[in-house]
């Protein structure tokens, strides 16, 4: 059964020019990119997107990071898309990813546990919420094209 997940290239990945390389890895790994867009998050929508982390001490830094520049949003589709995308990006902390998952995307372009270059939905519930967040509640990306 095919499923869909939300993938995001965070501001450090976009600024570091990793978008094309990451899309190449995505397509080589058998995902279809259903839709994609560039979005500049503001404090309000970054806070809503990461509301489950709002009690954490890293939250203010996370919001600052996520609003520091544009993010590249994609909806990915394949069998097992949600867990396969999480596996492909690797552990949250890019320093750990470089040791335990050296071929992961975070090992390639992430810096540490905060600036980790990419995001992926962690469950079917998060995938549904995050896809509707960007493509329902929060329209208005800078570039958008659908296949
Ligand atoms: P992400 O997978 O998008 O989900 C939550 C984000 O919070 C995470 O990636 C990191 O960018 C950030 N984050 C998670 N843990 C930490 C941490 N210990 N310190 C700083 N930022 C974190």
From TrEMBL:
GO terms for biological process: CTP biosynthetic process; GTP biosynthetic process; UTP biosynthetic process. PROSITE patterns: NDPK, NDPK_LIKE. It is an enzyme of class 2 (transferase). One of its GO terms (molecular function) is metal ion binding. The active site is at 119 (pros-phosphohistidine intermediate). Its EC number is 2.7.4.6. Residues 2-144 form the Nucleoside diphosphate kinase-like domain. InterPro entries: NDK-like_dom (IPR034907), NDK-like_dom_sf (IPR036850), Nucleoside_diP_kinase (IPR001564), Nucleoside_diP_kinase_AS (IPR023005). It catalyses: a 2'-deoxyribonucleoside 5'-diphosphate + ATP = a 2'-deoxyribonucleoside 5'-triphosphate + ADP; a ribonucleoside 5'-diphosphate + ATP = a ribonucleoside 5'-triphosphate + ADP. ATP binds at residues 10, 58, 86, 92, 106, 116. Keywords: ATP-binding, Cytoplasm, Kinase, Magnesium, Metal-binding, Nucleotide metabolism, Nucleotide-binding, Signal, Transferase. Belongs to the NDK family. This is Nucleoside diphosphate kinase. The gene is NDPK1.
């Amino acid at each position: 059964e095919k499923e869909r997940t939300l993938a995001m290239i965070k501001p450090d990945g976009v600024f570091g020019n990793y978008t094309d390389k990451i899309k190449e890895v995505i397509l080589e790994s058998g995902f279809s990119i259903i839709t994609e867009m560039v979005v500049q998050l503001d404090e309000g929508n970054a806070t809503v997107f990461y509301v489950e982390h709002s009690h954490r001490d890293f939250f203010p830094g996370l919001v600052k990071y996520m609003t520091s520049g544009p993010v590249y949003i994609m909806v990915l589709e394949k069998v097992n898309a949600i867990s396969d995308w999480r596996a492909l990006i690797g552990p949250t902390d890019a320093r750990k990813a470089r040791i335990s998952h050296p071929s992961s995307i975070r090992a390639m372009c992430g810096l540490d546990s905060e600036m980790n270059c990419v995001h992926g939905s962690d469950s079917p519930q998060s995938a549904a919420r995050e896809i509707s967040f960007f493509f329902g509640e929060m329209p208005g990306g800078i570039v958008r094209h659908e296949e």
